[in-house]
Amino acid sequence: MDITAEESFGIATKRQVLAQIVVCSGCCCGRTDKGKPEIPVDWLKQTWKERRLQKHVQLTISGCLGPCDIVNVVSMITGEGQRWFGGIEGAEPFRWLVEWAQETADLGESAELPAELLQYEFQRFV
Ligand code: FES
Predict the structure, then answer these.
(1) Which domain of life is it from (predicted)?
(2) How far apart are CA 118 and CA 69, in angstroms?
């Protein structure tokens, strides 16, 4: 007998997604007034909206995620786990994230991570 998610976890959401991208926009990340590299928050939100990605890959602009020493931190959460990226400068890595989200939405499962993003990956937990 198959066990439903509700039976396994006791509660279920109707808003299940394939992944969630959490972009830090806290006390340091994206704070150009503090000399930090810009994060294209408005462009990300607009692009997510135009491509209707939110139902598939949740975009969350968050407060401080913790590792401020790295700045411009992004966390990617999928059914396979959570990955962390940081030290992101320029718009290109954010375009790669959008393309990954689009591919994930199109595939209906987590797409392979663009190899270029790996240079920004770090280990968050000890
Ligand atoms: S402000 Fe982004 S990690 Fe703290």
Answers:
(1) Bacteria
(2) 19
